[in-house]
Amino acid sequence: MPEAPLSSAPLFEGLSAADVAAILAAAHRRRYGRADFVCHQGDPVDAVYMVAGGRVRLTQLEVDGQEVVIRFIGPGDIFGAVAAFKVTQFPVSGEVVEASEVLAWDRATMVSLIERHPRLGQNLMAILSGRIQEMRERIGDLQTQRVERRIARALLRLAQQAGQRTATGILINLPLSRQDLAEMTGTTLYTVSRVLSQWEADGIVKPGRERVEILRPHALVTIAEDLPSP
Amino acid sequence: MPEAPLSSAPLFEGLSAADVAAILAAAHRRRYGRADFVCHQGDPVDAVYMVAGGRVRLTQLEVDGQEVVIRFIGPGDIFGAVAAFKVTQFPVSGEVVEASEVLAWDRATMVSLIERHPRLGQNLMAILSGRIQEMRERIGDLQTQRVERRIARALLRLAQQAGQRTATGILINLPLSRQDLAEMTGTTLYTVSRVLSQWEADGIVKPGRERVEILRPHALVTIAEDLPSP
DNA sequence: CGAACGATTGACCCAACTCAAATGCGGTGG
DNA sequence: CCACCGCATTTGAGTTGGGTCAATCGTTCG
User: Fold this and answer.
1) What is the pLDDT of residues B31-80, one digit of tens each?
2) Nearest Cβ partner for A133 among B91, B138, B142
3) Which of A42, A132, A142, B228 would you label with B88, given CA atoms 20 to 30 Å apart?
4) CATH 2.60.120.10 holds for B6-142
């Protein structure tokens, strides 16, 4: 699986290779295995993190014990920024779903790096803005769309960030349970299972244990966009 | 109604009075009347805005024409930052619900101000982080909570940002229709109406035409937190 | 091989949506 | 000052998407 170099991460856009090297050099590194937690909701944070390799699932625990999957993040993605600049406690938990390496800059370091490289600050702002934008879309979806449509959109998003071309379609290259999909789309694992079964009968996807392969992406787009099925 | 001075806005936290004055001096000002739009979804943006007075409702239009209320903003609140640093188009529309004055810094100005006053950048980051945090909570609510609970939480949030003490309780000092509440909480105006009627019967709120007064805030908190009603 | 865990499927149910109709408030113009 | 109009709101009746619960099946892994 080809892994883009970290230097091409959005956080480093527009910075010289030398600057990026300096910034990377200021980070601490840490490795994690599958099912490790890189952070727990409520832990104090004083750093900004970046995934260097592997994949992490960020979840939020509701008061009543239900879990909500906020997002999956992979190489080049950052997390902890919200906490570092505002709340000082992790608002989410991060569970490793694929062995990972994580970089960390403590808050003071990041602040001084930003002062030295203003572009870094702008990039960070752009990243946070992008998150806000995504979440607004998700809120819009949850408020106005049917479950089937939300699941279709979630699969397409996942395909984009972790899709792998196969002989027959696009495999979402992540251990992804029905429960995960339910927590991403605000439904139950039962409903997800039913929808996927239906789509399997229609030849749109090929679901498996903790895996989903998309056979006809276009059909999924049709559902996601709520177009008349042609 | 006592209006906190703009200089105490979160954006200016930790900056000297002189710095704040300089930053404010760099902004353009503009006035709007009720029902004016300060921005339309899709318009190009190249500036960061701050509400100096009045109140604005930010809404997002879904593909199918349904509206979603993202938030109400008032004096000291900023908007447009997401677009300025990322998408370059307003992701939302802003309708004035109470005559308003708005400040604007174009992107280049804001960038150079941030370079001159690093704290300004940190504050902006903190504000964006706060937004992300709020939206995560909202997503969690939408995915896991009943409508009644979401309405209670929305009212409490509104009371906090636009509440006015009265002889009998707290009045939400905004023209706020059932439709608005429905679009904030992801339900229909019919359901909102029914819930408010029930609460009125219980003596918790006193609903009126485009207005809601909270008589027993504590009861609302009980519902919002899903505690056993004592 | 058996335990543990993910997934599937059926049966039932209800919170909330839809649609329709009536009511009442607020402003406006005669 | 009153009559009227438009719009927000209320309320009823009927419907349903999808949640809940329970039982079963299939796989993976110790």
Assistant:
1) 999 889 999 999 999 899 999 999 999 999 998 889 999 999 999 999 99
2) B91
3) A142
4) yes
